[in-house]
Amino acid sequence: MSISDAPTNTQETTAAERLTAMIAGYKPLPGIPDEFIGADGRPRDYWLRYLNSLTGLGEDDIGRRFAAADRHIRDVGVSYRSYGDTRERTWPLSHLPLLIEATEWDQIARGVEQRAELLERIIADIYGPGELITAGDLPAAVVASSADFLHPLHGVTPPGGKFLHFIAVDLGRGPDGRWWVLGDRAQAPSGAGYSLANRLVLSRAFPALYRDMNVERLAPFFQAFRYGLTALSERSDPRICLWTPGPLNETYFEQAYLARYLGFILVEGGDLTVRDGKVHVRTIAGLKRADVIWRRIDGDFADPLELNSQSRLGVAGLVDALRENGVVLANALGSGVLEGPAMLSFIPKLCRKLLGEDLLLPNIATWWCGQQKERASVIEDLDDLAIAGAFGNPVLRFPQNQPVIAGLLNADEKTRLIAAIKERGIDYVGQEVVNLSTTPVWNEDRLTPRPFVLRVYAARTAKGWSIMPGGFCRISDRADARAVSMGAGVQSADVWVLADKPVEMITLLPTNETARIRRLMGNLPSRAADNLFWLGRYLERVEATLRLIRCLAGRMINIDAETGLAGWTIKKVTGLLVAWHAAPKAAARDLLKLCGIALHSETDYGSALSLVRDARRAASVIRERLSPDTLRLIDELHQSIGENRKPVLSEADAYEQADAALRTIAALSGLAQENMNRGAGWRLFDIGRRLERAINSCRFARQFSGANAPADDLEVLLDLADSQITYRSRYLMGVELNTVRDMVVLDPFNPRSVAFQLERLGEHLENLPVLSDDGMLEKPRRQIIKIAAEVTTAVAADLDTDLILSFEKRLLELAEAVAARYFLQGPHNARADRWSGLA
C-alpha cells in the first residue's frame, strides 16, 4: 500500500494494531544508540513512516512478500562461503532495511570522501617519495612490517598517477551518536555486489514502499565507477576485466554478479598473460589486450615471479608490466598496507598533515604498541582495551584478524599477552572497546534490536570521488554490541538512504546517444569456453545415465527380468551402468540397489548425482554467462536427484525419479536453444552436448545393435535414442536391425542420431574464430570434415560394431582436438601464445 493511499477506519485500526504488536517490547540495549529509537526515547519519524506503510500491507501480504524475497535469493543463487566451507550457503538477507536520512548521509559521504583522498595521498607517499617516514609522521616499521607492503612496487607510479580507485570504510555509530571508522578496506573491498543483490531483492518484494520512501538509487554510483575505469584506458573501447581468485573464494558469487552487471570480463589468473609489457586475456580467438583490471585478489598473490612464488592465482610478469604502464590495475598492488590496524593510530595526525583539517569521521581510538609510551599505556589499561594484531596477525590462540577483549581473558592468558606485547610490541595494537548501535531486525513478527556494521564504498570517477548512496550492512545475531566481538555478521541488510523528494529512475543501460550497437559479447576467455564445453558434456552424460536407469526400471516393471531375451537385454543395460562407473559391479546382482546407487551415489563418479554436481560446479564458475533460469534449472536437477532419496527404492520410484530429472534436462535443453545468445559461448556449450551425445549414441548402438541383435535390444536402443515415436511413424513393421541402425547412427534428419550431431558440430566449428589467416583448416575442422564424410557415405547394411567403434574413437579424438585448440592447456601452450590474435 502506498503511503499516500487513504485506508478505511477499519484498515487504520488493523494496521495500528499490527504496528503496536510489532514494536511491543522493543528496547534498545542499555546505553547503546539505536537506529529506530532516538536519543529522546521516541521512534524516529522516518522509521514510523516505513513501518506504517509495511503494516498497512496486511499480515498475510507481508509474509508472502518476505517469502518471495527468500525464494528470489534461492532462485537467483545469491550465495557465499565462510572460510573453509566446501559448499556455498544461501545469502542471509534481513527482511528489514537499514534506514538513513539524507542529511545524515551527507555527513557520512563527506567523511568517506575525505578519507578516500587521505588514503590516496598516504599510499602515494609510501610508494613514492616517502616524505611521511622521513619527517617522522609515519614510523617506517608500520609500513615495512606489513605483509601487504610490496617492495618491488616502490617507485612504480600507476597510469594517471592514482593508486586507489575503489575503497570501502567500515563504520559503526558510537555511544555519542557519531559515526566512527572501524577500519579501511583498500586492498580488494568486498560486499558491493551483495549490496546490489540486497537492493534487487527488497525493491522487488516491496516496490511501492521502495518508491514511496524515496530511496536513492545505486545505479548512478556504479555507472560513474565504470566510466571512471573506462577513462583510464588509452583506447576508446577498452577491455575491462574483473580479476577473481576463483570459484572457491568466499565472495565469488558477488564477483560474478558485478562482472555481469557492469559488463566486465570475469577472469582468473590463468586467463591472463603478459606479452611485450602488456597484459592480455587468453581467448578462443587468441590473446586480446586487457586495458583495465579491477582486482579481487590480494596483492602479494598477483605475480609469482616477483611477489609470492607459491601463488597459483597470479600472472607471471605482472609487476614488470605495471612498471611499463602496460595495464591499469584497480587498486594498485600494495594498497593493502593501508588496512593494517597499526595505520589507524596515525590517520588523525596524517589527516591534519596532508589535508590541513581534522577527520570528519573519527577513528576508533587505536594505540600502536611499537612505540614505548603507547605500549606502556596499553599494558597499564589492558582490562579496558581490545588487543588486535597490528598487521592482521593473530593474538595468542585466537582467530586471525579477530581482536580480543583483554578484560575477558583469564589471569594466565593476560600474563602471556602482556609478555608478548613487551617482547614484540610492534605486532600489537590496543583499541578502545566501542559499543555499536543497533538496528531493528524482523524476529517472529516482532522487531528486535541487533548491532550492525555499515560498509560504505567510494569510487574514483572523472569528477573525483563518488560515494555509494547505501552500502553493505552486516548485522550480528547476538545482542553483544561490542565492535570487536562482532566478526562477520550473520545477516545482511539493504541500506536505504532516504531522499527528501522523489528519486529519478536511473539505469546502467546506455542511452541512445551513447550506445554503440553490439551483437556479440566480445571474445570468450578460454577458461569460460572450457567450462561451457564441459557443462554441455556433463548434462549429456547425466541424460544418458538417466535414460539407462529409466529403461532398466521400466523393464523391471513390465517384463520378467529372469526369463528369455529380456534378461540378456537387462544385463547389457546394467553392464553399461557398471562400465560408466555409475555403480559398482557387485550391485548388478540386485537391480533395485543398482538403480538406487546409479541415481544417488556420491562416491561413484558416473552416477547421476555425481554428474549433476560436476555440471553444477562447471556452471557455478561461469554464472556470469548463464541466465538465472538456467542456474535455477540446474539447481532443480540437483535437488530432484539429491533430495529425493528413499530408504527403500521401488521400481516405480526409480522410474519416476529418472523421468522427472529427464524432464528438467529437457527444459534446460529448450532454454539453451531458445534463450542463449548465438555467440561463441553457446557454440562451445552445444559442441560439448553434441560431442557427448554422438559418443553415447555410438556406445548405445554398439551395445544394442550388434549382429543378430534381438528385438528387445533394438527396442532398448530406440528408447535410449529417444526415437521410438519417429521410428513407429516411419516404419509400420516391427523393429529391424538395419532400419534401427540407420535411424540412430546415419539419419541426418533425426536430432538424436550421430549424423545429426556431426552436422551441428561442423556448423559450430566453422563459425568459431580462427587464429591464423593463411586459409588452412585448423585441426578440429579437418577432423570433423573427415568423420562427417565417413558417416554421410556409410550405409546401414555395412554398419557393424567395428565401424561404429571407429566413429566413436574419431569423436573422442575430436573432443581432444577441440580442447587443445580452444581451452587453457598450461602457460606455455602454443594456442595461447599465438601472436596473430593480439588486439
From TrEMBL:
Name under which the protein is recorded? Uncharacterized protein
State the organism named in the record. Answer: Methylocella silvestris (strain DSM 15510 / CIP 108128 / LMG 27833 / NCIMB 13906 / BL2)
- Record domain DUF403: where: 524-823
Source domain of life is: Bacteria
Q: Which residues form the Circularly permuted ATP-grasp type domain?
A: 97-475
Q: Which Gene3D superfamilies match?
A: 3.40.50.11290
